[in-house]
Amino acid sequence: MRSLFRNYGIYFAWIVSMVATAGSLYLSEVLHYEPCRLCWFQRIFMYPQVVLLGIAAYRNDRNVIPYILPLSFIGGSISVYHYAEQKIPALAKALPCKVGIPCDFDYLNWFGFLTIPLMCLIAFILIIVFLFAARNTNEPMQVTTDIQETEHL
């Protein structure tokens, strides 16, 4: 199982980013749910990952991982705040969205906890997990170990 995620982690991350992007476009363009300001910021950090991870998956290029991880961490942080704003009314009053739809408005609230920002957070977390699993194991620590083994021969 570990080798599956190591070998195909970039592909899995790419699929997650495509599903998240398609889902957000479906919600806004088909169902006509107007995105709030925080939703736009989350989209800003998710949408480029579709292109970057797609190219990386096509080329099997793991060197893109350090560039993608900050996008996912920042986007995930925005998702955490957005979800907290929806679930904690005091946060919505502290920094209210003044343009467009309020950020604490729930279009979806499945099972009493699953909202759009939480789904976005889950997507960012999955991307982070898949990319950590897909990292190269050729790190400096391993190179020094190989050099030490060569010296003993």
UniProtKB/TrEMBL annotation:
Pfam families linked: DsbB
Membrane-topology annotation of the record: Multi-pass membrane protein
Subcellular location: Membrane
InterPro entries the record matches: DiS_bond_form_DsbB/BdbC, Disulphide_bond_form_BdbC, DsbB-like_sf
Record SUPFAM superfamilies: DsbB-like
Family annotation (NCBIfam families): PRK03113.1
PANTHER family: DISULFIDE FORMATION PROTEIN-RELATED, SPBETA PROPHAGE-DERIVED DISULFIDE BOND FORMATION PROTEIN B
Protein name per the record: Disulfide oxidoreductase
Organism, scientific name: Paenibacillus motobuensis
